[in-house]
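Hi R.,

Here's the input for the pyridoxal-5'-phosphate complex you asked about:
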Amino acid sequence: MQSVFRRKLVAQKPIIATQVPFVDLRAQYRRLRRQILAAIDDALQGMQLFLGPNVRAFEDEFAAYCGVRYAVGVGSGTDALYLALRAAGIGPGDEVITVAHTFIGTVEAIVQAGAVPVFVDVDPETYTLDPSWVEAAVSARTRAIVPVHLYGQMADMEPIMQLAQRHGLLVIEDACQAHGAEYRGRRAGSIGDAAAFSFYMSKNLGAYGEAGVVTTNSRSIAEVVAMLRNHGSTSKYEHAELGVNSRLDELQAVVLRVKLRHLDEWVARRRQHAELYASLLQDVPVKLPKTRLGSTHVYHLFVVQVDDRDRVRQGLEARSIGCGVHYPIPLHKQAACHGIGRVVGDLKVTEALAGRILSLPMFPELTKQQVQYVAASLQELVN
Ligand SMILES: *Cc1c(COP(=O)(O)O)cnc(C)c1O
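And here is the predicted structure with pyridoxal-5'-phosphate in place:
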């Protein structure tokens, strides 16, 4: 930690916050700069950039972090989901049950695999797949469920796994926002048949470019993903299947290895900020995020619900507070998804959320003053 004296000299963080970015990736880089540059230099001196030693080491380290046997590094979170689905044997004619309250990548992966997305509603407290809709969504063609661990909290995996077992379905977790989150003592990515993680720059564990990983306890899924990510190749210029070019980049693996060592500490900071937000906002008419009993939240996003959301958002932005809406248009209403998939029920919760949710600034390097400024500004705007 820098002393207050030095902080004043370099004037990086005014004591009274008057502006708060939505995320600040520079603040993190400043702390890690030496380690990252040294590790990148090592990797470039070694010049083994094709599925090199850092990719393999990161795969082992990330598998251990999640508590799974295998992790296979790929080019993005969307590709991770697509490749996991394909490796699990999901393809044309199959239906995959998922949610419409998520990032577009979830449904792109399902459709790219040739399958049909079937949208069900989310739980109004945790914003993750509501298992009570699954029975109504199952058809003769259903092959898999893709629960999304949204905002940093895992979906309700126990009933989901039970339903999957009863109907003979696979479960592929979209864990792109939930690195390190736990459900009854098990980490995201370790409960379903396979899981997809994204290391997009602003995720809780972010590379400096595109990157993702598939985790699984299934040796065959891991082997098929490893083959598909590299043009379906089994050995040089021998191709068992048509795959894709989606390997994890060696330099991104270098960055991810350095950052993974800090992930738990960053998550702890996010939790502190979440607690402070919650205590400052307890008597303010906003609905705070809720953590399911037996789960932990890693607060990729800190999402509240407010009345008159667009006015509140504009008010925060006028006070130089960055915020976001994740996500303003449910997938079944996106132009890109027109005529794609099937909707089960009326998605009442999904549609109501789209007009009420607001993501407040959340990143490990936030200061207490910044959280206080955001909370005070929000209080003024909603009262
Ligand atoms: C980020 C994200 C993805 C896609 O990851 P990319 O690495 O950007 O391809 C998929 N699903 C969810 C829920 C995400 O947040």
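One thing worth noting: The pocket of pyridoxal-5'-phosphate is lined by residues 76-78, 102-103, 105-106, 148, 174, 176-177, 198, 200, 212 (CB under 6 Å).

Cheers,
M.
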